[in-house]
Design brief:
The chain has 181 residues and is mainly beta. The chain has helices spanning 95-107, 165-173; strands spanning 8-9, 16-19, 24-28, 33-37, 41-47, 53-62, 73-81, 117-122, 125-133, 141-148, 152-160, 176-178. It starts with 7 loop residues before the first strand and ends with a strand. The model is unreliable at 1-5 and 85-91 (pLDDT under 50).
Amino acid sequence: QDKASKPTFAKFKDFIFQETENKKFLFNKKDGIKIEIPENWGMVRGVDLGGTVFEDIITFFTSDFSFKPPTGCAIEFNVKRFKKQPNNFYLSISPKEIKESIEKIENAPENQKDEQRKVIEINGFKALQETHNLPKIENAKDLSIELPTKTRVLYFFVTSFSTSCQEKINDFLNKITIENK
């Protein structure tokens, strides 16, 4: 596998943080992303929920987020960048493959739809969401959300410890502006 055929990730240093009187934003001009960070959400760059350091992850969390006791909501976020090869082959799940999965799910007969895997919309873009219930914690879920653009995949890994998280997560996701790069 040559280096050029592998996807690269946006580094957290590609994101610029800006705060106004009453709003916080994260911008990434290279990837065409603007995230308005909702009130009462925090952010840490370069660290995942487990405390592992990564230069390509940004973690957002509600002010009440905790593992012990399990409360609140958190989102790990990164951007995969793809370069097309002459034969349009990607070595990772590409924007094209995710779009094909979205189309299959949308066109599946009702009796073949899977509640764990569905299509959601984020500001006019279709995304693939997979839900995994967390054992031993009531109402706890992990969601993986992959939003394909032309040459990027925006990836969100969500940890939700309550039913009220879904509304907070939807609010967060709908404050994202995306250019189709």
